[in-house]
Amino acid sequence: RVKQEGRNGFRFFDPGMQEHSARALALSASLRHALARQELTVVYQPQQDLHGGGLYGAEALLRWHSAQWGPVSPAEFIPLAESSGLIVPIGDWVLRTVVQQLAQWDAEGLPPLRVAVNLSAVQFAQPHLAQTVQRLLHESGLGPRRIELELTEAVALRDPEAARRTMEALSQAGMRLAIDDFGTGYSSMSYLKRFAVDLLKIDRSFVRELHSNPDDQAIATAIIQMARSLGLHTLAEGVETEAQREFLRARGCDAIQGYLYARPLSASAFADFVRTQPKLS
Ligand code: C2E
Ligand code: MG
Ligand code: MG
Ligand code: MG
Fold first, then answer.
1. Which residues form the EAL domain (predicted)?
2. Complex-level ipTM beyond the 0.85 threshold
3. What's residue 194's pLDDT?
4. DSSP bridge partners of 180
5. Whose CA is nearest to atom 33 of ligand 1?
6. How many angstroms separate the CA atoms of 170 and 178, rounded?
7. How far is the CA of 238 from the centre of ligand 4 (A)?
8. In DSSP terms, which residues pair with 255 in a beta bridge?
């Protein structure tokens, strides 16, 4: 097709940024239609409780299977959705989809789990975010504790006063708040004291070489200890080996998420996974 010849042409004389931005522009154009064309889905990655060994909860992760481009990673399309403003309708759709899924699982008799949803800065800056999520939960007859909202340090610190108000409203409404990719952003930790945070998600970059890298061991241990002193929970991301899980368990980390326990699963595969779990305590 013409577009692809164009891309190949770019690659021929300029293998750098221009090709990247040509792809970005073309992807953004496709993304505009992704919702209407039902190309977006949500998968659910189980999280393991390190105290009892059972299910801690799950994280909802967006997937885009484009008719034109095939599967596109969220690491690539979420930034495009953010810069084009599409993240607002897409983010609303994710929240609605997760809430409806929770209600359906309840109706099917699954234990009442908590699902974490990622929020980007643009969504977080919306003045009525707390009311919107509350209304969605109320319409589906779900309690606020069933949803956890994940935001990064950068989102929390962009406009600290507005962020504090939004987090306060979400927390007042009973929703749990998690800081995603903890330790990779600006490490002004005073916000942990002022903000109504419940959970720190230790970034995968500190977990990857946990078996061999003393710096990562020191950082992970320090995050867990600090969180415990502040009365916050910790969850480690990207846990792939038994050695990583044992290190984290021994240090008092509350939960893990990663390929060792489970990959992100379709809604029906996730329900099957939950049914094979020992009963929640
Ligand atoms: P994240 O929120 O930090 O999500 C965790 C990422 O780590 C996911 O990548 C997950 O598939 C991956 N992962 C989980 N366990 C392992 C493991 O053991 N090893 C490795 N190597 N990776 C693991 P994914 O699904 O590609 O998502 C990437 C990022 O895209 C997310 O990072 C999040 O920042 C963003 N994202 C995904 N869904 C949404 C969404 O609905 N809304 C927004 N705003 N952002 C989203
Ligand atoms: Mg996340
Ligand atoms: Mg994360
Ligand atoms: Mg991450």
1. 24-278
2. yes
3. 74
4. 152
5. 118
6. 12
7. 8
8. 49, 235
Residue from 42, 61, 72, 245 whose mutation best tests the ligand 1 pocket (most atoms within 8 A of CB): 61
- Token reading at 35: 């919702």
- In angstroms, the CA 16 to CA 249 distance is 44
Residues in contact with ligand 1 by the CB-under-6-Å rule are 45, 61-62, 73-75, 78, 91, 94, 118-120, 180-181, 237-240, 257-259, 264
**β-bridge mates for residue 126, sequence order:** none
Exposure string of 145-177, with b = 16+ CB inside 10 Å and e = fewer, is ebbbbbbbbebbeeeeeebeebbebbbeeebbb
Nearest atom in ligand 1 to the alpha carbon of residue 239 is: 18
The string of pLDDT tens digits covering residues 223-261 is 999 999 999 999 999 999 999 999 999 999 999 999 999
Q: How far apart are the first and last CA of the chain?
A: 56
